[in-house]
What we know:
This protein is of the alpha+beta class and about 120 residues long. It has helices at about 5-15, 25-30, 50-60; strands at about 30-40, 45, 65-70, 75, 80-90, 90-100, 110-115.
Amino acid sequence: xxxxxxxxxxxxxxxxxxxxxxxxxxxxxxxxxxxxxxxxxxxxxxxxxxxxxxxxxxxxxxxxxxxxxxxxxxxxxxxxxxxxxxxxxxxxxxxxxxxxxxxxxxxxxxxxxxxxxxxxxxxx
Length: 124
């Protein structure tokens, strides 16, 4: 079994973990569409340039952070769902879930990210 459903996802996660900022754009261009949309609890933006700025800002603030895949990939039609952990020196700081949309060409069009566990059911 492959770790990622296609090369776009492999490049997407290499981009987030890359310490050499001169390589970020190369991974990004091989991962997401030009009009890519990124939406998580902290950020919402569109386009490759905005994603690159987000990654660079994150990497400059959290140099020791590493994103680690925490599940396999669940796919149907043009959608992909998976879990990841944000770790620093081996300790998990954030657990996340992404729902991604993939273009006909195989690049990632959109990622909707969520942090932490789902809330419990509310009492009636």
